[in-house]
């Protein structure tokens, strides 16, 4: 569920971390949550602000990209690397095999580009991924930011609804698998 925090608006990430601390997560996960806070959100200071994270939320947050319909991952690059690895069929090809394989792959990519220029539709995503993307989009579109307009501190005059954040995170987590 902690990976689903990336789908929250940046303003509500602190509330999600607070909800984890409030007992909505199993205590066995505390070391993972601490690691996440140190590296991805920053620790809470005494004045209510957060320290600078190693990887700030502006880098890894996908809330706005999801709403805009943009790609959330670099799966295209990973797919390309896997395709090249398969084409080489070994870990350390000779120089000539490397050059020949790159030439062959370039011809294949040029043919794919020509099809695209000719107006041919790219291959569709598998149905299960399209359906999961639609469910994630529905969850993100229907989520109402709790701490809107106050990205650095928790507004003391606002009622928090930890359960709504936890339900949102569970819903997101049900719609993707990390082990693929």
What's the quick description here?
The protein is mainly alpha-helical.
Please describe what this structure looks like.
The structure is a single chain. The protein has 2 domains: 2-71 and 126-173, no CATH class; 75-117. 55% of the residues lie in helices and 0% in strands. It has 8 helices and no strands. It is elongated, with a radius of gyration of 21 Å.
Task: List its salient traits.
single chain, 180 residues, mainly alpha, 2 domains
Task: Tally the structural domains.
Answer: 2
Average pLDDT confidence is: 84
Summing up helix and strand content along with how strands pair, one would put the structural category as mainly alpha
User: How large a portion of the residues is in β-strands, by DSSP E?
Assistant: under 5%
Instruction: Compute the CA-based radius of gyration.
Output: 21 Å
> What's the tally of helices?
8
Percent helix range: 55-70%
- Count of strand segments: 0
Order of helices and strands: HHHHHHHH
Determine the oligomeric state from the structure: single chain
Unreliable sequence segments: 156-160
Shape: elongated
Largest sheet: none
